Amino acid sequence: MTRVSTFTFFQSGERAMMQRQEALLETQAQMSSGKRINSPSDDPVGAAVASSTRSALAQFDQIKSNQDRASYLLSLGESTLGQMVNAAQQVKEKLIAAGNGTYSNAERLSIATDLQGTLAQLVGLANSTDGAGGYLFAGSREGAAPFALSGSSVTYSGDDTLQRLEVSTNRLQQVKQAGDDLFLKVRPGNGTFTTAAAASNSGSGSIDPGAVIDPTQVTGSAYTIAFSAGAGPTTYQVVRASDSAIVASGNYTAPASIVFDGQQVTIRGTPANGDTFQVAPASYQSIFDTVGAAIQLLSKPVTSPADQAQLQTTLSGLNASVDQMLDHLSLKQAQYGSSQSELAGYQQINDDRQLQYRTRLSTVEDLDVAQAATQLSQRQTTYQAAVQSYSMISKLSLFNYLG
Question: How far is CA 241 from the centre of its chain?
């Protein structure tokens, strides 16, 4: 027969009471916080899952912040380029007006003055800030404005670094475009080649910007179109610079469309003996240089038929270059819009993932209030029973029965 000492009764009763009290306090803490897990010891596995989930949510919060910043920069960039497109359209309208044959030197000079203001506007837009102490189009050199205007000449002090932000897991999106790619790398003329009249021309001949009629035959070489005029018919020869070959020739009757190596140009007026025209591959030209060239052209007085021909030739080339400028800026603006659409998709994905992880975190650590209320009532009852039981045990003593 096993004997149980009075000490054992006391110890067992005390232990039971303490356990019930600890369980009651745990439930009360859960009801107070609304969380099932208030410390790792409440549920070690659940606490580890909750910690991992919070870490993922912190990353999503950072990505959300990046997305908001990216959306702001892309919207600002698109808006700025939209204003530059409008300015370029104004340049186009002024150049068309300047081509009016009845305009005087003073009227063309007035247009040049207007264009100087438009050039300043374009430079100001190219120097737009990002609202955080930097510039939209400076690359990584954001300590100073990237573009500087001196007269009708513009210089660029930025670089070609593209700035990106992480807008989704392992996805970096470009949020700033470098100024050199946006504004300095436009193909003038018709986009493939440019045309020009020699400064020494004395006749009234002019050349249009030309066009490509067969891209497979374009050589990328420069050409010279030379005219001979004497007692007989006026003739021309087209000489390819790369090998000095004569690629086209014939009698000239105005206007004449001359075709060579997949290219076509039209010459009007009356070229003098020895007059030449140049056709050259279109190398990069900045939008500012295009406007600057227009300002310089319209600032020069026209005093002879040769000057008028030079004006028409250069104006037609500048008009074509402005068309290229408009296409280029519109394309870059569309790229901003495309980036915004892509970003909107990443924002939706990020929002969905945040919701999923928050739901997961809630499932792991949030308290089922109804279940906890029932458990609280049960634990209060068992705790009270343990207290009463211990109270009864504490009164058991032989001395209570000795008279």
Answer: 41
The three-point CA angle 216-218-219 to 5° equals 120
CA distance 275 to 228: 8
- Condensed to tens digits (0 to 9), the pLDDT of residues 127-186 reads 999 988 899 999 888 888 999 999 999 999 999 888 889 888 888 888 988 999 999 999
Q: Which domain holds residue 272?
A: 193-281
260 and 277 within one domain: yes
Q: Which of 380, 372, 384 is nearest to 33 (CA)?
A: 372
> In terms of domains, do 97 and 129 share one?
yes
AA letter at 368: D
Residue 370 placed within a domain: no
Which sign does the torsion angle of CA 40, 45, 46, 51 carry? Answer: positive
- pTM given for the model: 0.79
Is residue 268 situated within a structural domain?
Answer: yes
Which residue in 362, 361, 363 sits closest to 50, CA to CA? 361
pLDDT at res. 357: 76
